[in-house]
Amino acid sequence: MSARRLLSRPELKAHYDRVGAWQDTQAFYEAPALDALISAGAFHGAASVIEVGCGTGRLAERLLRTHCPPHARYEGYDLSETMVQVARSRLASFEDRATVRQTDGRLTFDRPDGGHDRVVATYLLDLLSREEAQTFLGEAHRLLRPGGRLCLAGLTRGRSLLSRGVSRLWDALHRLRPEWVGGCRPLRRWALLDDARWSVRTHTVVRAWGVPSEVLVALPV
Ligand SMILES: C[S@@+](CC[C@H](N)C(=O)[O-])C[C@H]1O[C@@H](n2cnc3c(N)ncnc32)[C@H](O)[C@@H]1O
User: Fold this and answer.
1) Is residue 82 part of a domain?
2) Which of 10, 110, 134, 156 has minimal CB crowding within 10 Å?
3) For 208, what's the count of Cα atoms within 13 Å in the CB-facing half-sphere?
4) Three-class SS state of 68
C-alpha cells in the first residue's frame, strides 16, 4: 500500500480559504454527529469553550444560541483567513462573548492551564498527523479544568457493510489525492487517547448518508 500524504499547513490554508462558507454543505453528513456531540458534551454546564478548527462558526453559533449558559464565553481558532472572517461575521451578534482568532496552524495556545470547561474539535483531527493530533490532545488536557470535557467528532471507519464501503472509498481517495477530500481521512480518534490521561464518557459512531462519524467525549484524569 502506498504511503499516505497529508496536506501541509499552507495547502490546508489555501484549500479552506477557497472553500469558505461552502464548508457548510458538508452538514448533510456532519449533522447527526454534531447533534450527538452536543448532547454528550453537556454544554449547559460550559461557561468557557475553546474550539480549534472552528470553520464557519456553525457549531459555535448553535452552542451560544441554544446550549451554553447565557454568560458563556467562546474562543474559536482556525488556520484559514476566510473561515475566520466567515465565523466572525456569523458570531458578531454575540459581541464580546465570542472571539475568533486566526492561527498559523500551531496546536498550542497562549491560554492558562485548567481555565476551560470544553475543548472542541470537529472534523479537525482527520487532517492532522499523529504527532499533531498528540500535540492537540496534550494541549486540550492542559487547557481543561478538572471535570471539563474534550469533545471530538470526525470521520471514522464504518462498521456496517455500507459505511465500511464508504469509508474505504474515502480513504482510497485520500491516499490518491488528499485535495479531493479536503485533506480529511477516516480516523479512529479513540485509539489516540491515552487512558492514563483521559476517561472516556461517550464513544459512538453515527452514520449519515452512509458516511460514518465518530463522536468522543472524554474527561481529563
Ligand atoms: C474539515 S474543516 C471542519 C470545520 C468545522 N469544524 C466543521 O466541523 O464544519 C477543518 C477546519 O480546520 C481548519 N484547520 C486545519 N488545520 C488547522 C490547524 N492546524 N489549526 C487550526 N485550524 C485548522 C481548516 O481551516 C478548516 O476550517
Assistant:
1) yes
2) 110
3) 16
4) coil
Domain that holds residue 178: 9-220
Tell me how far CA of residue 35 lies from CA of 75, 109, 174, in angstroms.
Answer: 20, 27, 26
Nearest to 77 by CA among 155, 140, 32: 140
Name every protein residue with a CB atom under 6 angstroms from any ligand 1 atom: 12, 16, 23, 30, 52-55, 77-80, 83, 103, 105, 107, 122-124, 127, 182, 184
CA of 118 to the centre of ligand 1 (A): 17
Q: pLDDT-derived band of residue 2, with 50, 70 and 90 as boundaries?
A: low
The domain that contains 83 carries what CATH number? 3.40.50.150
- For 178-207, how does the pLDDT look when each residue is reduced to its tens digit (9 = 90+)? 999 999 999 998 899 999 999 999 999 999
**How far apart are alpha carbons 56 and 24 in whole angstroms?**
7
Residue 37 maps to a domain: yes
| Ligand 1 atom at shortest distance from the alpha carbon of 13 | 25
Q: Is residue 2 part of a domain?
A: no
Atom of ligand 1 minimally distant from the CA of 80:
25
- Can you give the length of the chain in residues? 221
3 within a domain of the structure (yes/no): no
pLDDT tens digits for range 3-62: 789 999 999 999 999 988 888 888 888 999 999 999 999 999 999 999 999 999 999 999
* Cα 124 to averaged position of ligand 1 atoms, centre (Å): 5
Tell me how far the alpha carbon of residue 123 lies from the centroid of ligand 1, in angstroms.
Answer: 7
